[in-house]
Amino acid sequence: MALTQAFVIGNILTAFRDVVTMPLIAFILLAIFFLGLIYQLFSERVSIIGMLSILSIIVYYAGHLLIGEYNGIVLALFIIGTLFIVVGLFMTGSFLALIGSIIIIVSMVLVSGSALLFSFYILVIIFLAIIEWVIFVKKKKSKLPFLNRLILRDATDAESGYTSFDDRSYLLGETAKTVTPLRPSGTIRYGDERIDAVAEGGYITGDVEVKVIHVEGTRVVVRPLEE
Which keywords, in A-to-Z order, does the entry hold (predicted)? Predict the structure, then answer.
């Protein structure tokens, strides 16, 4: 009984390997992975296409690894490439992620057993992926919401509603009064607030009305109001 089950399982695995390693099927699996991955990056949430993308690459590697050639090297390259991508996206930037992508592509070609044919396949798929990327970016004006949410890259600039704790931009164009002489730095009063400021011309006496003409972070530049 056990021998029969082992025989059946062996036949299933052999059939699975033979189907997955067919050049056309392998090309389709790789295309689903790359094109689906780009689609997922432009999606708000995890999508069915994104899950199919991951499933396709698992099936691709599983089928080709059953051949038994370069298994250790291929797995090592895939793991290293994945780590490079993760570290590159979350910590150091896109260059390391690019290196990781190249390493994974090398592992895909190596595990195929037909470097020339699969290199051509990869080039065709990359060309299609570039077209897909351009369509999303140029035509739909899309960003990368899924990736931004994943690695918390929401903008923290003023246009996004964020301001620095010491931002003094609200003072620009306002009128205040010098509390101390500005030689060229000193203190001005705006309402009930005492603010460090710098005189535009180098010196302003105390108790003089001034206008804020420039603000850069916490640096406030003023000139006498009568000028």
Answer: Hydrolase, Membrane, Protease, Transmembrane, Transmembrane helix
